[in-house]
Design goal:
With 409 residues, the protein is mainly α. It contains 17 helices and no strands.
Length: 409
Amino acid sequence: MLNTLWLLLFFFAGLSGVYHWLVLGQPEIFSAMVQSLFTMAELSVQIMIVLFGTLTLWMGFLRIAEEAGIINRLSRWLNPLFHRLMPGVPPGHPALGLITLNFAANGLGLDNAATPIGLRAMHALQELNPDPKSATNAQILFLVLNTSSLTLIPVSIFMYRLQQGAPDPTMVFLPILLATSASSIAGLLVVCLVQRIRLWDPVLLLWLGSLLGLFALFIATLATLSAAALNHVSSLLGSLSLLLIIFCFLFVGWRKKIAVYDHFVEGAKGGFQVGKELLPYLVAMLCAIGLLRSSGALDIVLNAIRWIVDSLGWDTRFVDALPTALMRPFSGGASRALLIETMQHFGVDSFAGLLAATFQGSTETTFYVLAVYFGAVGIQRARHAVPCALISDATGMLAAIAVSYWFYG
């Protein structure tokens, strides 16, 4: 899929370049396209320098949390919920701990670190699968919750904004939290309905009712604030949340008398390895997207969508961020490249730049996650995984547009 997508990006860029040359009389388009390749290759290295630090930092703290027993404790707390959502998984099964660790990595916005943990969890769930070629209900629920990307602290997006010169990288914290919460709740509910999970079970009612109630209360509280206050609260909560998580991990590690420094370094080494493997993919996608933008192909598509939206009498500002949203279900690398390109082209704190960041944090790469997670264990029948995941994606994207207009007007 990625091979075809990458080739198509170059094909349409070349086609657009020829159109601008022969039809519009702009031969200088080719020099701009060549320049964009070198510019994006240089930008990829600059981003990777910051990304190395971010991944090593958070992988280190995540290892402290694992060694301090925080992940196991979370797993025990969530066991009553998992037992009802995944009745086919026995209590105390290793898959539950891996699922919890995967959710923790996703919650911190470490999607690259969450993938290897998620693969281990999928293998553990496959051991319970009576039909190895067909996905179980537990595997489908796990996959849909991964594609909904419940990101509590979008560290990587903060990093991209910081690298692009944002004076306040955490300003997108609340919009992303609201959008990703909407996509995760939608994904969970639609899977429960399809799998006929007893939503009226007292434990499920308590968990889901509490989550929905807190979410509604949170929205109602935010609705009383002005746009300036919303941005201030978003920045404050984003920074405080990051620091509280770090100090919590360190405090619990100290109380457990573990060698926090040694475990941090051990985990950080894994983060460095993950970051190093990302550079070729980032160069490939950023150069392709840069070529697409410099050739004018991306502008042609966006202008067509903008004309349709304008004909309907709607505000068209969200159209500039749509490439990130449309690419998000197919490729994390391509959507990441489009996010960075959008921030560079329109400005890191422009409406398009902020909305693109919210899109990036609201959902995951559905088809990539499905191909990798199910392909790794040999599953050929995805059953209802794809429609449930796409409903979750659509909810997250619509929520991202709504909250961005609310916050950034």
